[in-house]
Design a protein that fits this description.
Radius of gyration: 21 Å
CATH superfamily of the largest domain: Vaccinia Virus protein VP39
Structural class: alpha/beta
Mean pLDDT: 88
CATH architecture of the largest domain: 3-Layer(aba) Sandwich
Helix content: 25-40%
Number of helices: 11
Strand content: 15-25%
């Protein structure tokens, strides 16, 4: 089987396909397709690669690799599954392929930015496959999560994953254009991986992106249509001391220019990726932090100020810096 994977990787490299939808290199892409064709798990065990492969298995694997090359379909759409924050998810063309570096923050339970023990309510804006919402529910078992999306097709996929992970009691799917169906709801954490690709960038994306739903990628002329709504409306939906975490990818510079009054905390990640900012409820609305009579902050109500470096880029604690492709 190892030879079959290596041969597939050579084909992918020669074809010049784009990587970045769940894998970032030809070998991993080929391995995902070959393992799927052979109906084998992604166990990571070395012994699996010594397995003998029959002619029918080779034919199935070659067929998937051929489609990957000729049609430029991302491998995840051909296999119908991917992994996010250590969890397995069903994925198809109704949703964006999960690849957000926010997974690392979820795995750390959003520490040190918030005390995980007090988190009870989380909102995932633009949930797509439901990967962020489900990963949050798994990482914070006391929390209830609202997973919102404007697309009914995306919510169908999210429902498959909620059932798969048996989280129907703690993850609620909501059809909503941003916060439109969430009047009066407030959360400890709001997470969003919204569309953030501008018109010019959309026209130059590799063909692999054309298989993803445009609604999950395109965000107007400058890529900020969705981000503007989130920054304008999220303050009304955050509890005191709450966090807003948003991925904006390659539009980071545009966000900095457009919202210069906000002191963003830009996070960086060990496994690559960037363009993710964090804001507290109080940073969105400085006047919302109550004070005691002596003028000091009420203990336990408003969070301590961020570290001095927070105005720039801050590595996720214990992580190395890195960047990420669009999406």
């Amino acid at each position: 089987m190892l030879e079959l994977i290596e041969r597939g990787a050579r084909r992918l490299r020669r074809a010049g396909v784009f990587f970045g939808h769940g894998t970032d290199n030809a070998w991993d892409d080929s391995a995902a397709l070959v393992l799927h064709a052979l109906r084998l798990p992604h166990s990571g065990e070395r012994t699996i690669y010594a397995r003998r492969v029959g002619s029918r298995d080779i034919e199935r694997a070659d067929g998937l690799l051929t489609r990957r090359i000729r049609e430029r379909i991302p491998a995840v759409y051909l296999t119908g599954e991917t992994w996010f924050a250590g969890l397995r998810f069903h994925v198809d063309r109704r949703v964006l392929i999960p690849r957000s570096p926010i997974a690392e923050l979820i795995e750390r339970r959003f520490a040190p930015w918030i005390d995980p023990r007090r988190v009870r309510r989380i909102l995932d804006v633009g949930t797509g496959s439901g990967c962020i919402a489900i990963a949050c529910a798994k990482a914070l078992p006391r929390a209830h999560v609202d997973a919102a999306d404007i697309s009914p097709e995306a919510l169908e996929v999210a429902a498959i994953n909620v059932r798969r992970h048996r989280l129907g009691r703690r993850v609620r799917l909501v059809r909503s254009d941003h916060f439109s169906a969430l009047a009066g709801e407030r959360y400890d954490i709001i997470v969003a991986n919204p569309p953030y690709v501008g018109r010019r960038e959309m026209s130059g994306l590799p063909p692999e992106y054309w298989h993803e739903p445009p609604l999950a990628l395109a965000a107007g002329r400058d890529g900020l249509d969705s981000v503007r709504v989130i920054l304008r409306e999220s303050g009304a939906h955050l509890l005191p001391g709450g966090l807003l975490i948003v991925e904006v990818g390659n539009t980071e510079a545009a966000v900095r220019r457009a919202f210069g009054r906000l002191t963003f905390i830009w996070l960086e990640f060990e496994r690559g990726g960037g363009g993710v900012f964090l804001l507290t409820h109080e940073a969105l609305d400085p006047g919302s932090c109550p004070v005691q009579r002596g003028g000091g902050q009420k203990r336990g109500f408003c969070p301590p100020p961020p570290p001095p470096a927070a105005a720039g880029h801050v590595p996720v604690p214990g992580k190395r810096r890195g960047r990420k492709a669009t999406g």
